[in-house]
Design brief:
Blueprint: H1 2-26, E1 28-30, E2 33-34, E3 37-38, E4 43-46, E5 49-52, H2 54-60, E6 64-68, E7 73-77, E8 80-87, E9 90-91, E10 94-95, E11 100-110, E12 118-124, E13 130-137, E14 146-149, E15 153-156, E16 161-170, E17 178-187
Parallel strand pairs: 10-17
Antiparallel strand pairs: 1-4, 2-3, 4-5, 6-7, 8-9, 8-11, 11-14, 11-15, 12-13, 12-16, 16-17
Length: about 190
């Protein structure tokens, strides 16, 4: 009786282990690197095809993702967003640590193939803390390009390091913010 239970247990464990090895060989994890950074969800390789997490890939490429539930369709839009930082009428990028600067952000957006509901510009300090410079609902009426200028902001660059000025868009008012452009300011 004990021999029979042991044999059944051994058979079940063998089948379970074999199934796990087959599943692992049928779909292998793939390491995905975009612009030098690993994507945390990575990808899967199955039958010679690589499958990636669309939202994570689009975020890495600074794109917008639209999911249509009824047609089960994902659309990725990559607008061209060029940002310029101005202090008065002078373009700037590097600053002195510990100083307070007044500047504005000017963005030129083109190749926009979808409507957007809102835009936001934020600055992130070297520790990752966000300060919203300005956000605004927009109505583009099917325009494929527009310009956006923030009001002047007074900001203290208290520590050394890289500060990221980021431009975000929302396709729908209820969506999360999608990063579509980034400019770096170095404080020394």
């Amino acid at each position: 009786m004990k021999f029979r239970r042991l044999l059944i247990l051994l058979l079940v464990m063998s089948l379970w282990g074999g199934t796990m090895m087959f599943a692992d060989s049928a779909a292998q994890k793939v390491r995905v690197i975009v612009n030098g950074e690993d994507l945390s969800d990575a990808g899967l390789l199955s039958d010679g095809k690589t499958y990636l997490a669309v939202r994570q890939l689009a975020n890495s490429l600074q794109s917008l993702v639209v999911w249509d539930e009824t047609s089960k369709k994902v659309t990725v839009y990559k607008p061209n967003v060029h940002m310029f930082l101005f202090q008065d009428n002078t373009i700037f990028g590097n600053v002195n640590k510990g100083n307070r600067y007044t500047f504005k952000v000017f963005a030129q957006i083109d190749n926009l193939k979808t409507d957007v509901a809102a835009v936001k510009v934020s600055i992130f300090d070297p520790s990752g803390s966000e300060k919203v410079i300005q956000s605004q609902n927009v109505s583009l009426n099917n325009k494929d390009n527009f310009w956006y200028r923030t009001d002047d902001i007074k900001y203290n660059f208290d520590s050394s390091g890289k500060y990221a000025v980021r431009f975000f868009m929302k396709v729908n008012a209820t969506d999360e913010w999608n990063l579509v452009s980034e400019k770096i300011i170095t404080a020394q």
